[in-house]
Amino acid sequence: MEDNIKRSIILDHYQAPRNRGLIEDDSYIKVDTNNESCIDEIYLMVKIEDGIIKDARFDGEACAICTSSTSIMVDTIMGKTIEEAKEILTNFSNMIDEKKYDKEILEEAIVYDDIYKQPSRKKCALLPWWGLEKAIKINEEKNNENH
């Protein structure tokens, strides 16, 4: 993907983030992730029903990379099963860490494929994905308690 296309996707998701804004609904799993080395703090809400991510929302204060990464992540995981979301999460993390990954399943998240060139920005891109990982773990723990 060309750099100018990547930049325009990142800018679009930063200026008009998808599903920004939290709601009052106890059926959502709520997680807070923050980066101690900068202002990034993302509040993530994920609604999981029957093993499928039905909705995801976020709010918080964050840089352009973190905000756009969160928006792209929310767009990417909507309607996916937990297993699909985990696979996307693993591949995204691998891409950021310069490990082997499947770019086909990353959808728009592929725009961060060269963020490793800016090591200080890796955490910015990964922060919301760590929040998703926490939400999935909470969901699994809840399901284990109910069975």
Kindly describe this structure.
- The chain has four helices and three strands.
- β2 (41-49) and β3 (52-61) form a beta hairpin.
- It has one domain (3-145): Sufe protein. Chain: A (Alpha-Beta Complex), CATH 3.90.1010.10.
- It has helices at 3-15, 64-77, 82-96, 119-145, and strands at 29-34, 41-49, 52-61.
- The chain has 147 residues and is of the alpha+beta class.
Task: Please name the defining characteristics of this protein.
3 strands, alpha+beta, 147 residues, Sufe protein. Chain: A
What is the N-to-C succession of helices and strands? HEEEHHH
Low-pLDDT ranges: none
Helix % is: 40-55%
CATH topology: Sufe protein. Chain: A
Number of domains: 1
- The helix-and-strand class reads alpha+beta
Cα radius of gyration in angstroms: 15 Å
Main β-sheet description? 3 strands, antiparallel
Ends distance: 45 Å
Specify the number of helices: 4
Mean pLDDT equals 95
What portion of the residues fall into strands of 2 or more residues?
15-25%
| CATH architecture annotation | Alpha-Beta Complex
Order of strands side by side in the largest beta sheet? 1-2-3
Overall spatial form: globular
Number of strands: 3
CATH C-level: Alpha Beta
